[in-house]
Amino acid sequence: MENFNQENEETLKQTNDSLRKEHLEKGDTVEIRSEEHASKKEHSHKEWVIHIKNSIINNQRRPIRRCCIYRAHTLRDVDIAAFTPKIVSIGPLHYFDEHLKGMEATKIKYLGCFLQHADKTARLKEQLGLTSLEEQLEFLCWKDIDQMETANDDIYCLDNFLSLLESLEKEIRSSYAENLNHIASEDFLRLILVDAAFITEFFLRVHFKSKDDILASKSFLLALISCDLWLLENQLQFFVLQEPYNSAFGSYPEIYPPFLELTFKFFRFYNDQGKESIKAEVNHFTDLLRTFILPSAINFQENKQNTTEDELLRGMFGTVEPLYEHLPSATQLHAAGVKFSASESKCLLDIKFSNGRLEIPSLHLFDET
Question: H or E element: which one contains 350?
Fold first, then answer.
């Protein structure tokens, strides 16, 4: 009996030891799995932190200059064609549009001529015998573009322009509301240089009335390009055009007008008020056309002396409140007894109200309006 009890105790002890060992092994496994889960979680957290840091670093270069070039998202829904260039892309927003690729070869050709003109201008001081403007223009090949030498590797000013644009890259990128980090720096600077050189060369050919220019000599192409150049989504910042221009041609003001004056001349068709200069900073060509319709300081002061906004509202409604609650339509104004007449003013904002008559400048609408 004693032997039986001893055997049972040993068996029970062995069983307990076995269960204890199995329990410990399971505990170790659970603990190991918990440690692995914690390690993976910590690694995932670190990757998440690194990703956020990289996003912050990548976007730090953007907010240097105020954004001034946008996509017209809401308005595009109404008429996509009105905001899409027809023949030439300028800047990065429409650079990848397939229907505009046909102009790239022409823009490269204009880039080559621009660089040669800049190089010839830099060597003009060496030409001591060229005293008259006609002789200088003939040497610079502005009158006859076909006399321009074939481009070669000795274009010394190319590096200067690339270095200049490289120093401005952060400012250029930050001027676009759209994130352009998907365009590599080298590709971005190349497209900016090509487009800036194309515009400058094109404007100067129009200014000097260069013979047999492939674009300016055809009126329909000139009209199409002019319309493309003032589309909001098809812009380069004005300083991107002005600084290379000044670097290349600024030393000879007797030959080359200031770039703003050159731009005024090119877009003179839209300058109904005949403004000769503006004091405000110009962001781009679209912004320039906006300034063309703004009242001049003189007109604004005259208007302010003649009729104040409150006087205008009181004359029509007896109170100043309606404008802030609801802007009445022309039909409502007519029903209220207001008479309309076209004024001779060229400023679209030069609106006058006197003795029940509202004088409004004429608005001329064209296909490109």
Answer: none
